[in-house]
Amino acid sequence: MPLFYKIYYKQDPSKIFIGYTTHNDLEKTKSYNNSVLNNEKRNKTKLYQFINEVGIENMEYEIIEPIDSYYDPVIIKQRHAELHDKYRATLNNHYPYYESVKERKKAFNNKHKNDDKYKPLTCEVCGRIYTQPHQARHQRTQFHQNALNNTEELSELDNTDTEII
Q1: CA atoms within 13 A on the CB side of 96
Q2: Among the listed ranges 11-15, 43-47, 102-106, which one has the minimum average pLDDT value?
Q3: 90 burial class (0-12, 13-18, 19+ CB within 10 angstroms)?
Q4: What is the pTM of this model?
Q5: Cα–Cα distance between 51 and 45 in angstroms, integer?
Q6: Torsion angle of the four alpha carbons 82, 86, 91, 96, in this order, in degrees rounded to the nearest 10
Q7: Which of 18, 59, 64, 87 lies at a CB distance of 3.0 to 4.6 Å from 4, suitable for a disulfide?
Q8: CATH fold of 3-87
Q9: Domain coordinates of the chain in residue numbers?
Q10: Going edge to edge, which strands form the sheet with 12-21?
């Protein structure tokens, strides 16, 4: 059965990480964490950097509570956020979000609706709509490139026509 767990520093229990795993065995989670510690590409989080600093032998793992395997993922993430707040987790990189993707998009749109950089812009070359943060990505699209090439070819034809006359 999946479970919520905490990892804390024995000498200072305020240094704490709250997590959850689909393994029903905390030993598998410990084993995974030990393998990540030795992988420089994957050990960049606060937890792993702290463990590397103080040593794995100074950390304690503890099961907080089991997770009903039939829970909705949103409910699991909501409970994760509640436990994060309850234990005042300091070694988690991110605050656990529990709202749905649709709710996050709606919150983002409400937050930035008056922000000029997110106002829709119309491309003068191809007529497509994009926002300022996505301008470079838009300009790399095949549709924009084709429209750009067609515009350049038309302007070259216009220039050659005027030179001949």
Answers
A1: 25
A2: 102-106
A3: middle
A4: 0.57
A5: 10
A6: 10
A7: 64
A8: GIY-YIG endonuclease (3.40.1440)
A9: 3-87, 118-164
A10: 12-21, 3-9, 59-66
